[in-house]
Amino acid sequence: MAYPMTLKIALLQLLPGRDLEEQLQIGMAACERAKKMGADIALFPEMWSDGYTIPQEREALDRLAIPADSEFVEQFGMLAARLRMAIGITFLEKHDPKPRNSIVLFDRHGERLLHYAKVHICAFDAERMLSAGEDFCVADLDVGAGTVRVGSMICFDREFPESARILMLRGAEVILAPNACPMELNRLAALRTRAYENMVAVATCNYPEGQPDCNGHSTVFDGVAWLRDEPGARDMCILEAPEEEGIFLAEIDLDMLRAYRAQEVMGSAYRHPENYGILSE
After folding, report:
1. Model pLDDT, residue 1
2. I need a labelling partner for 278 at 20 to 30 A (CA). Which of 25, 29, 130, 215 fits?
3. Mind giving me the DSSP string for the chain?
4. pTM for the full predicted model
C-alpha cells in the first residue's frame, strides 16, 4: 500500500542565548521538542551560532566565527542521527578571507547533506564584514518514506528571483530559508512570489519578537497556487507563526506539490533563456 508522502518542517523561532554553549543547549533542546512533534526537518533562524551578531571589528568577528566542521556544528549532526530527523543548523562560518553566513543540513542519518553560504550578503550593512557564498546547491533528502530535493537560500537572498530560480532549475522542491529581519507585508510577498513562480515550497525561519530587528512571522508557502478540481486560487501560506517565541510545525503535501508541478505552467516549462542574456552581463 502506498502512503501519502508529506514533509513536516519545524521552524525553531527561538530567542538566542548568551554564548556558543548556550546556543548549543537551547538548540539541541528545541530539536528534541521538534522530533516529539513529528518533524522530519528542524530549521534554525539565520546564524544561530551567535544569534546573528556581526561585530564590526575584525578581531571580535573572528572570535565568534566557527569552522564548518567545528564541535558545535558536528553536535547537531550527531543529534540528527540520534533523533532520526534532519537538522538545518546555521552559523557564522570561519572562512578565508572573511567569515561567511552559512547553513549545514544534516540528514536523518547524521550525514552532511548540504552546505550553503549566503550569496546575497547585506553588504550595505553589518554583513559588509562577511564573504559572500558563490553558488546555490541542492541535495536529495531521505525522509524515510522517500526522498525530497531540497535547497537553501538565506534572508536577503529572497529579494533576488535568481536565487530560487536557480534552485528550482536544479530540481529543488523545497527551499529552506533561515532569516533574521522584520517580516512584513513586502518581504512576505517576496517569499510567496518565489514559491508561486517556481512551484516550490519555501520554509522561512525567523527570530521572534525580542530579538533586535526581528518579529517572528516564520512562514511556509507550499507552492501550490490552485487545484484544477477546485474553484479559484488557494492560499499557499500553510503556516504563519505569531511574533512570540515557539516551535511551529507545517506539513507539506509532497504528492500534491508534485502533481501540481507536473501539469502547471510556471517554473521552467515556458522559459526562454536564450533571451535572458542581460541577466548574466
Report:
1. 40
2. 130
3. -PPPPEEEEEEEE----SSHHHHHHHHHHHHHHHHHTT-SEEE--TTGGGTS---SSHHHHHHH-B-TTSHHHHHHHHHHHHHT-EEEEEEEE--SSS-EEEEEEE-TTS-EEEEEE-SS--TTTGGGGSPPP----EEEEE-SS-EEEEEE--GGGGGSHHHHHHHHHTT-SEEEEE--S---HHHHHHHHHHHHHHT-EEEEE---TTSTT-----EEE-S----TTSSS----EEEE--SS-EEEEEEEEHHHHHHHHHH-SSTTTT--GGG-GGGG-
4. 0.96
